[in-house]
Amino acid sequence: MAAIRAPLGLLAELTHRCPLACPYCSNPLALEDRAGELDTATWARVFGEAAELGVLQTHLSGGEPLSRRDILDITAAAHDAGLYTNLITSAIGLDAARVAALRGAGLDHVQISLQDTLPASADIIAGYDGAHARKIAAANAVREAGMALTINAVIHRANIERLEQMVDIAASLGAGRVEVAHAQYYGWALRNRAALMPTRAQVDVAMATLARLRESYDGRLVIDAVVPDYYARYPKPCMGGWAARSLNVTPSGRALPCHAAETIPGLDFWNVRDHSLRDIWVNSPAFNAFRGTDWMQEPCRSCDRRETDFGGCRCQALAIAGDARATDPACSLSPLHERLLEIAEGDAQTAEIRYAYRGRRESIPAE
Ligand code: SF4
Ligand code: FES
């Protein structure tokens, strides 16, 4: 059994309700109902247990966390537990008054997603007319309130040519950090992969652009990147290792080692309604399933990089190789790597961009 370190981050998925319909949404295809969502008191207990366990930061996420009518109480509970609080939001419904109220409740940081720099394209990707203008207004309100801002830009075939403008717009909005995240193919993104996948040539240009932007913005804007791993040589160290650094709690209270873990059959996810967060983190079979390196097969088992990338992503191994214990096919040492490249290059040639949108959403965030 691997030594168990304390987690640093908690992703609190407060609801799956959301006004947007982004085609790369990482939420599961079967969204959880409002009726099953954890109540305020349970979230408050979970935040207290998280802080006691060693968590430093919580991401209030969704869906759209502003859809929760008790978002101020939830934010205050996380703050009172001593956690650094980050709101991950579409920004629909986030006006200056709401920013002020959230700040008063103890919110430390806001992360707003931008879908593109061209408003018409951004609104199509978001599935919401006028979304882009509202996001820009909300980002300005956050900065005018003196709060820290991160812009999240998910990159895919419809916007990859404007990666530089995305970073420029983040800087012009006063963000301290921009997250340039190439779409990761889970959940709705896997379903929409043929419409989202860029070509290798586009990715090569994007990576060179990113390197240049990092130099020119050095000291002014932190540029984090999630690489497009279908074209990579080595996989991403997904979640910093399974059950190693952070955990997710779903709207109904299931604790997950990663956002796509429920796609892996045979794992039993304990619920925060029945177990403390410490009990889940230390003893839950799902959290121990891929902890450390004992579970690995070859070539990971004897690879020098096994403590660097942890064999890549279990959910991607399952999705592509059909085995969550397999080497992530994004790794060039995987026997399935060539197949993954063929899939990527085939998808990138799909002429028409047509998104299968999410099945259910709510248009009006709670007041
Ligand atoms: Fe990482 Fe496994 Fe590939 Fe080695 S073989 S680089 S541990 S994914
Ligand atoms: Fe589940 Fe990577 S998304 S391990």
Helix and strand sequence: EHEHEHEHHEHEHHHEEEHHHH
Query: How confident overall, as mean pLDDT?
Result: 93
Number of strands: 9
| Distance from first to last alpha carbon | 47 Å
How big a fraction of the residues is strand?
A: 5-15%
**Secondary structure: helix percent:** 25-40%
Structure description:
By secondary structure, this protein is α/β, with parallel strands linked by helices. It has 13 helices and 9 strands. Helix 1 runs parallel beside helix 2 (71-80). The protein is globular. Residues 359-367 have low confidence and may be disordered. Bound molecules: iron/sulfur cluster and FE2/S2 (inorganic) cluster. Iron/sulfur cluster (SF4) is lined by residues 234-235, 299-300, 303, 305-306, 309, 311-312, 327-328, 331, 333.
Structure summary:
This protein is an alpha/beta fold.
Please outline the helices and strands.
Layout (H helix, E strand, L loop, with lengths): L8 E5 L26 H14 L3 E5 L9 H10 L3 E6 L6 H9 L4 E6 L4 H8 L4 H14 L3 E8 L7 H10 L4 E6 L4 H5 L1 H4 L3 H17 L5 E5 L19 E4 L5 E2 L20 H7 L1 H4 L25 H8 L15 H12 L19
The site of FE2/S2 (inorganic) cluster (FES) has 10 residues, from α12.
Q: Any key phrases for this structure?
A:
disordered C terminus; 13% strand; binds FE2/S2 (inorganic) cluster; 367 residues; binds iron/sulfur cluster; nine-stranded mixed sheet; alpha/beta
